[in-house]
Amino acid sequence: MKNIGFLSFGHWTPSPHSRTQSARDALLQSIDLAVAAEELGLDGAYFRVHHFARQLASPFPLLAAVGARTSRIEIGTGVIDMRYENPGYFAEDAGAADLISGSRLQLGISRGSPEQVIEGYRYFGYHPAEGESDADMGRRHAEVALGMLEGEGFAEPNPRPMFPNPPGLLRLEPSSAGLRQRIWWGAGSNATAVWAAQHGMHLMSSTLKDDESGEPLHIQQAKQIRAFRQEWARQDHGFAPRVSVSRSIIPLVSDQDRAYFLGQRESRDTFGHIDEKTRAVFGRSYTAEPDVLVEQLATDEAIREADTLLVTVPNQLGVDYNAQLLANILEHVAAPLQWR
Predict the structure, then answer these.
(1) Quick one: 3-334 is in which CATH superfamily?
(2) Terminal alpha carbon distance of the chain
(3) Hey, where are the domains in the chain?
(4) H helices present in the chain, as ranges
(5) What residues does the Luciferase-like domain cover (predicted)?
(6) By the number of CB atoms within 10 A of the CB, which of 97, 143, 238, 276 ranks highest?
């Protein structure tokens, strides 16, 4: 059995070929797709966060709006780049959005990924400390935010406050109980997966990973997941770990599907450098007729290891198309593979 959700990058472009031509379109359609996904019986609505791009960016207004329009589905991110985040604002916004949703947030965070601009976090006012890398800074921001999400008081109260204070040290408000146990780390390597387990964060592994063995993505991911679970078992976090992987899955069911995606049937994993230091493997798209997809996905080791599968959606094709795509995945892929 799998938890199955969608993952949207929220692309928008003012092109006559796009059904998502503005940022407003991307935001409102994201809400509508989450509502449709809940009605279909999916388990999660997740959204990517990219700064300086024509994509979804500031996540918490969107998460709160989705939370207000839905009642059951998990709502998450994949992932928030913590290099750009003020830990205090992050904790406050996350607490508010979680309360609005009825404690359904599943927040994926990370140290970041290749950016649209050079050192974009500096435009947000954040600079690595002396001797610290930007990745170190992202992890530091994450650790501070995790502490704040614990809900314990840490700030010295003003002896002459504007409003009466409860006794003792003060915490950030609003605080949402249990949210700290619903934080995921987007890990690009085996080492950061182990680090996530040590810090009591669930594991989120996408279609892009550091190439650490030259093997296909799904095999490398499966090894990463096993390393995460082994480390988690050594800890005493008091709650069970979860693992998600994301995949592009397109069942070719209709003429419209074939018109859009027939050319992707021969997709394969690709290897290359995402920067001057990092060689990575980028996962293939699974695009084929349903019976072929079932056969291919049955051999994906990482999906077998994970409890949660996030399916990326081509959001610029519109809500109706993507809702039908998700319905086709449930009927023609998830059911035969006994994921549901």
Answers:
(1) Luciferase-like domain (3.20.20.30)
(2) 5
(3) 3-334
(4) 23-40, 59-69, 87-101, 134-149, 190-198, 217-234, 255-261, 290-297, 301-305, 319-329
(5) 9-251
(6) 97
